[in-house]
Design brief:
By secondary structure, the protein is of the alpha/beta class. It has helices at residues 11-22, 33-37, 62-67, 69-85, 90-101, 115-118, 178-189, 233-243, 264-273, 306-318; strands at 27-31, 50-51, 54-55, 105-109, 126-128, 131-138, 146-147, 220-224, 251-255, 277-282, 300-303. Helix 6 (115-118) links the parallel strand 4 (105-109) and strand 5 (126-128).
Amino acid sequence: MAASRPSQIPSEDLDSFTKHLASSNRILALLGAGLSASSGLPTFRGAGGMWRGQDATTLATPEAFTQDPALVWRFYSYRRHMALSAQPNKAHLALAKLARRNKEFITLSQNVDGLSPRAGHPASQLHLLHGSLFDVRCTSFYCNYSEKDNFTDPIVPALAIPTEGLQPEPSTTDKTGADATTALYGAMRKELDISDDRVDIPRVRVEELPRCPKCKTGLLRPGVVWFGEALPRGTMQSLHEFLNEPNKVDLILVIGTSAKVYPAAGYVNVARMKGARVAVVNMDRADTPGGDGGLLKDDWFFEGDAGVIVPEILRSVIGDV
């Protein structure tokens, strides 16, 4: 018999949550950047929210793209590359497994990194509030071209991540060439950290940016929702229908997000009014819906890494991942 694994969750909290989960059918999950941080992705929020010396949120606007499409594409191409270099963590896998077992479990993700789909989360139960880094669409007013799941990296050659010049360190002891070969391959693989504004990068001309294959003239843009743009109508409609069904909501999971920004913040309150208990998974205890006073005595706060906590609290239903 395998030895039981030590838990970082207080046993009383885990037991009460497990009991409620076993009787829960209609479940809603809200996912935020803290979930993907467990896969090593930068959140570009808070203290870490800088890219090449400027607030990353200033690049997430239609105005920024109009003013400097090359800079905006540099930022999003970097994020695409980082996301493709990362792997879904055990929380992504656990949530996907729960979705496959329970057709009444739906997920609203604020993440654009594609890790939940890559974890095998059923598309019909996964709603992307802010779109995806891997969707693109034409910016021409007269063109309706769009494409989903474009995983080409880089999307055009000019947006490739630059690498350091070949500078292998010579060996003072090895005479076989093995150390030299290892050093050479190591130097070839080292990419520059272009998020650091002290790192020089080649200038990208507008003519080198992704161009629409349909109209041949319009620039393609990332298929994410920028500040000031409308949220996806289909996503909003699906959540509205789920929350307005006559049956109660049993549980809402808030993972890696404070859920303080609307409309995500409103879903916690609506789910609670529909009978749901709230379970929060976050690294920061102050990062709860509504702040420190946002949870009721029958709710749960699981403090720690989502990649560790989520598989543990779901294990009784889904097994190991």
